[in-house]
Amino acid sequence: MLTGKSYIGSQLSRNETKTFKTFNPQLNAENPTVFFEATSNEVNQAVQLAAQAFKTYRNISGSQKAAFLNAVADEILKLGDILLKMYCQESGLSISRAESERERTIGHLRMFANLVQEGSWVQATIDTSEPSRVPNAKPDIRNMLMPLGPVVVFGASNFPLAYSTAGGDTVSALAAGCPVIVKSHAMHAGTGELVAAAIIQAVEKTNMPHGVFSNLNSGGIEVGQQLVKHPEVKAVGFTGSITGGRALYDLAAKREVPIPVFAEMGSINPVVILPEALRYKKEAFANTLAKSMTTGTGQFCTNPGLIIGIKNDFLDDFIVKLSEEVAKISPSCMLHPNIKAAFRKGKSKALEQDGLRTEVVYTDNVKPNYAKQMLVSVEGQFFLNNKILHEEVFGPYSIVVKCKDKNEMEMIISNLEGQLTGTIIAENNEMQNYMSIVEALQNRVGRIIFNGVPTGVEVCNAMVHGGPYPASSDSRFTAVGINAIKRWVRPFCYQNWPDYLLPDALKNENPLGLLREVDTKHTKSSILV
Ligand code: NAP
């Protein structure tokens, strides 16, 4: 069923002799399909087609876009076990994880279908004219959100479905009215091709313009760089490492016409445990935290990589308990030998730093590509003075920082880089004494959690998945939830424009029945003239 070719719009294409294969980390062997790297000609064709498609796609109705997104969901489901098996073969992740990620992908598609079907997301805002206003007549001003144009999407290695070919970035951009060119992730090119085929089926069944979606194979960084530099590309969505995201952000900024890069990158997700919680919750929480640290072999952007507490006997007891729980967990497979190598290197680099103490490390033999989980600890001063200890070690690794007091805890939190999440574990009666800690944490993160764990990102309207740099390149936006659509649009304004030439969203009659702001009031009513 797999061809190893790229999709340039609806056409399968293969022009290059440069090839690559994906890898099955459970079998420690290459998968059989040969994938063909997209050429610069193919990159250019895909972008030109997307630019052509944009002329039609930008004006397609919300109902038509909803039908398209729902058809993508249906076609992905039709792939059945073939997709799930391919996902497992290329990631080493379990079948149940594949199922849950597929469910999440389908959920995202249906959520955006509902959003564009209803339509009010365009935030139509109307200020009607006042011709008799003195000293100057007030013009009629109407504004709404408009799509930016072709978007390039880079998916992450650790979410072959939910943050990849038909992941949150692709789906929100298509919902906004932007054609999408996916730079397929080299580690799961087969999963990518299957999902791309499903999207192309949906394009054809719902009569979307040719070129509204393309999927380009690439085993290196050149295709992605060419895409970001292409003048017809208007925005980029990226999920991955800080190094990769920053490189693409800088590249986009150096273009003659710079474009936005919405990069969701690494994070160590601080978990702050307050003293009373340590006293009363340490046993139960150690168990919960050990699972959160190791779930998905620690390969989650929301993995709790940093645990912060104030030094006392309860913290020592908690570390012992957490170490026991971490030691009990059977090691699991990482996504790829390169990720395993990076994990090993990250642990070794951390261990070379002054003051680091190993609390527990899995020592038994493990299968190739399986990760040996590790918990380390360090005194607050060492952590404060050494930024290497703040770096993400992508995998099942966490560091406990033992602060001498509340002031040091606040200083440590204030000196952290931007993070996706922050967690407070506390008893209610101690919260009022630690509001300065809560504020310091709020300042560094995009989502704050009370008495829970950061892993498990709910897909819902209110979710924020982003945060101050480097968690994301622009903390004003989220990559998960309906507000993710706002990354791909710009506000556009009509002044004194004749009603019959306005888009339906802004017409007096309100033919789409949208909730609009008219003369500062929210209403679904039409405007009487
Ligand atoms: P990655 O190595 O940065 O790769 C992501 C994608 O970007 C790949 O397609 C890669 O292409 C491309 N790329 C990387 N560097 C590039 C460059 N300089 N120029 C052009 N393209 C480049 O990340 P990963 O290993 O896939 O993912 C793991 C990381 O993602 C972790 O740090 C994790 O925390 C983060 N992550 C973040 C989130 C979030 O929402 N914030 C979610 C999941 C994962 P090639 O594969 O061809 O090199």
Describe what this molecule looks like in 3D:
It comes from Pseudalgibacter alginicilyticus. Keywords: Oxidoreductase. It holds the Pfam family Aldedh. The protein is an alpha/beta fold and 529 residues long. It has two domains: 253 residues, 3-Layer(aba) Sandwich (Aldehyde Dehydrogenase, Chain A, domain 1), CATH 3.40.605.10; 181 residues, Aldehyde Dehydrogenase, Chain A, domain 2. 36% of the residues lie in helices and 19% in strands. It has 14 helices and 23 strands. Strand 19, helix 14 and strand 20 form a beta-alpha-beta unit. Helix 3 packs antiparallel against helix 6 and helix 9 runs parallel beside helix 10. The longest helix is centred in the N-terminal third of the chain and has 24 residues. The mean pLDDT is 97. The site of NADP nicotinamide-adenine-dinucleotide phosphate (NAP) has 30 residues, from helix 7 and helix 8.
**Fraction of residues in H or I helices:** 25-40%
Biggest β-sheet description: 7 strands, mixed
User: Could you give me the name of the CATH homologous superfamily of the largest domain?
Assistant: Aldehyde Dehydrogenase, Chain A, domain 1
Rounded to the nearest angstrom, the distance between the terminal CA atoms is 59 Å
Output the CATH topology of the largest domain.
Answer: Aldehyde Dehydrogenase, Chain A, domain 1
Tally of helical segments: 14
Return the CATH class of the largest domain: Alpha Beta
Global structural class: alpha/beta
Output the strand order for the largest sheet: 16-17-18-15-14-19-20
- Unreliable spans are none
Kindly provide the radius of gyration, computed on alpha-carbon positions and rounded to a whole number of angstroms.
25 Å
Number of domains: 2
Q: What would you call the shape?
A: globular
Bound molecules: NADP nicotinamide-adenine-dinucleotide phosphate
Task: Name the average pLDDT.
Answer: 97
Strand content: 15-25%
Based on the coordinates given, report the CATH architecture of the largest domain: 3-Layer(aba) Sandwich
Number of strands: 23
